[in-house]
Amino acid sequence: xxxxxxxxxxxxxxxxxxxxxxxxxxxxxxxxxxxxxxxxxxxxxxxxxxxxxxxxxxxxxxxxxxxxxxxxxxxxxxxxxxxxxxxxxxxxxxxxxxxxxxxxxxxxxxxxxxxxxxxxxxxxxxxxxxxxxxxxxxxxxxxxxxxxxxxxxxxxxxxxxxxxxxxxxxxxxxxxxxxxxxxxxxxxxxxxxxxxxxxxxxxxxxxxxxxxxxxxxxxxxxxxxxxxxxxxxxxxxxxxxxxxxxxx
Length: 248
Description:
The chain has 248 residues and is mainly alpha-helical. The protein is built from nine helices and two strands.
């Protein structure tokens, strides 16, 4: 079945709705391997391939089926805010209430309630469809805030994604120490990355494997490594040190 689906995908370019073939493949994988992501199922990689394949296809920019594939893919990411930022920058799902509902839900779960409120309002201003459902979800959200209001110290914008460091900007400053008036370089993260979290700026989100590698310290061989040595024990305060001298 997997081989047949791969064959169907390869020939789907001539279809009016090539996404439908991918959706059947994803559904089959999900039903065949109900335990979720595993080496056998490869569901995360399949979702990744599907999102990448259609990311520049205008036909699916506002297709709720394609957006659901992205949302399913985001559940396997350790930085879902990167996914939503990518969708926003590329105009994917921006006319759909589902985007704002799910984005706000992730932020609320992260206790970023003020930003979640901003996302809901953004969707309402854009007349995202279906509007009535979005209003209903927003009303439910506001009732939850009445019971459990946001922390007063919570900033109005979420912290920059973990991988924003790739878009860090370099600024110069001068030390205030009078005896050493020299310039030093300080790297400061921007609130919004100038380049996308992927390796190709905001044109690609990268892969799960690449993002996992970026956040993992590469192992190093022990050859040539030295263990730190403990220094000599200092004498206790007030204790005299005995110095031995050779008699001449």
